[in-house]
Each structure stands twice: as C-alpha cells, then as structure tokens.
Amino acid sequence: MEFSTKIESLQPSATIELNSKALELQNKGYEIVRLTAGEPDFDTPQPIINAAYQAMKEGKTKYTDNKGIKELRQKIAQYINKKYSTNYNENNVIVTNGGKQALFNSLFLITNPGDEIIVIDPSWVSYDAQIRMVGGIPVHVKTTKENNYIPEKKHLEKAITKKTKAIIINSPNNPTGVVYDKEFLSFISKLSIDHDFIILSDEVYDALVYDGDYTSMANFEESRDRTIFINSFSKTWSMTGWRVGYTIANEKIITQMAKIQSHSTSNVNTPSQYAALKALEIDNSYMVKEFKKRRDYLYAEFIKLGLTFHKPKGAFYYFIDISKYGLNDKEFCEKLLDYGLAVVPGSAFFSDGHIRLSFAASMNDLQKAVEILRKFLTDLETENV
C-alpha cells in the first residue's frame, strides 16, 4: 500500500511522543516528573465548565455555523479590539479546533506548491511539518542565544525570495519564551509590505507575559490587512482539551477559510464554544502570577546549577543549552529520563544541543526536577573526569 510521500516524510510531534513515553513509564509504576507538554496544570475555571454544562442542558448540542456561533465571534472581536486597539467584527473571526487548526487552515489557504514560508528557529515543532503538508517549502532562519533568539534583520532579508509567501511570527515564543519587542515587529510589518508577503502571527501565549509590555502584530494597522492572527483558549484559560482556537483576518481570508472548514471539520464542538464564550469574562491573572513565581524559582536554581539559558519573558518554557555536557540533545533527554525527568530535545525545535523544559507544572514537581537535574549533572561531571 502506498501513502502520500508528503506524509510519510513527516516525523510525529516530538513533544507529544515524549510526553506519551513518559506517561507510559508512569503507568508502569515508574516515578516520572513530566516537563514535556505545553499544557497548563491548572484546572479549567469552574464557571467555564458550568457554561458548557448549561449549554448541554439547554440542548445546545447541534451543528452551528462552521465559522462558530455569532456570539462567540463577536465577543472574540470585542476582546481583541479592547486589548490591541483594533476594529475587528465577527466577520473577521473564525473559530477553529484549537490554534493548531487555525494555523493549518491558514497555511492551506495561502500556499501553492513551491511557495516558501519563513520560519524563525528555534521554532514550534508543527510549523515545518504543516508547511510541508500543504505543499510549501519551509525556509528556516537561525537565531542564537547571544542575540536573545531574535533574528538579525540581515538574515531575514536574505531569506526572502520571489517565492516567499509568508513568515510565521511566534511571540511569546515556544520554545524560548522570547517576547519580540515593538521595534522588531515594526520591522516585520514594513518588510511584509515592501516584499508583499503575509504575516502568520501565532500569539497563543499572549496572555502569559511576565516582564515589560507586550506588542501584538495586530497593533500595526499598516500591515493588518495582510496579517493572519492566530490565538487559542488553551493556554490562557487552561482549556487544552476543549480544542477551541480562532483566526482573525480580513473578511476575504475568513470567507475562504470557512470553505476549508466546511469541507473538513465543520464547526468546533458546540458546548466548547459556549464554554469559550464564558472564558472571555474570566480573569487569568492568578495563573500568570503563579507561572511567574515558578519561572523565577527555576531561574535562581538553574543559575546555581551553572546552566546556560535565556530567561523567558513569556510562555512557560526554559530553553537550555546543554552542548557543553558531551551528549547530543536526544542522548541527554534519554539519560535524564532514566533518572525520572522527562524533557524535550532542542532538535525537535530545529535547534540541536538544547532541551526544552516546561514550568507548567506544580512547584512540588519543579523542586523534584531541580534535584534530579542536580544529581544527573553531578554524575555526568564525575563520568567525564
């Protein structure tokens, strides 16, 4: 039996694969601290759960407009307008099965065979795969920790060709936790106009920022018509399993995207849409406060351990350079798992010699993780003497 060569060439999501392996070990009775998945450990707020339950009791369990219920699209537009001083309405919004479908639909819509999509590395595991799935060519622009993982302008300009269709911007960034400043995003905005390409702005962590001000690509009116804004309820309100994301763009883009959704998934789970409607009223500041506390705890401990890393300003990850320890990142992660700590190799994010560690875990688990790391690094040093 022959399968699509595009699909056969893909690798499974490394973050999901490693999380599954860690879960399997836990189910066999091993004590494993899992810092692999990008998933808040908080329970979904009770009012959100109640809203879904109420919707089901009221019989709101049927098909909806495949773009999403009008009330939710209106409220998303109002939420973003208030946050970023935009002027969107419900016709600029489509509700999707998580941020992942929002990205896939966007790429599927804009990409013709051979089109190039610029990706800034380290990059989320699914960008490259999704670009290839829709027949595009990912063009990776490397960054370094010395530059705080912000790409040099000359490298971005060099990556642009006549085939460039879009660039993916992810801020706050997964896996580095970098938050791009206004100056850099303004440069991207101008670049997109000068070279006539689309900006896919993945901002699913925009409500998890710990230091300084946050600038969205939606803030730049001059490039707003060529910007596809992607977001999700998953990280902000701990709703990963509810699978509700959304895309905001000009009406022409949304109309075309609705055709994709009508022939693929139709509408998002109906009770989940009513849950998301309630979520937009819920203050998540207690989560942000706790994530910042965890980030700061690990920062102090990682300094003591002599680790090399960039302090994250947003999201909930540390991206740590482990190249000095004489192991490649996959070997490092495999050996670390033997000690009871599961993390993700940086090569999954197109950055060898690093590991990604999520601090979306309890303080108790983070304390255990620090102790495991301390013992592991001590043993490595002893082996290398």
TrEMBL record:
CDD domains: AAT_like
Xref: InterPro entries: Aminotransferase_I/II_large, AspAT/PAT-like, NHTrfase_class1_PyrdxlP-BS, PyrdxlP-dep_Trfase, PyrdxlP-dep_Trfase_major, PyrdxlP-dep_Trfase_small
Domain Aminotransferase class I/classII large: from-to ranges: 31-371
Keywords: Aminotransferase, Pyridoxal phosphate, Transferase
Taxonomic lineage of the native organism: Bacteria, Thermotogati, Thermotogota, Thermotogae, Petrotogales
Protein name: Aminotransferase
Residues in the signal sequence: none
Alphabetized GO MF terms: pyridoxal phosphate binding; transaminase activity
Cofactor: pyridoxal 5'-phosphate
Family indicated by similarity: Belongs to the class-I pyridoxal-phosphate-dependent aminotransferase family.
Pfam families in alphabetical order: Aminotran_1_2 (PF00155)
PANTHER family assigned: ASPARTATE AMINOTRANSFERASE
Enzyme class: transferase
EC number: 2.6.1.-
Gene Ontology annotations of biological process type: amino acid metabolic process
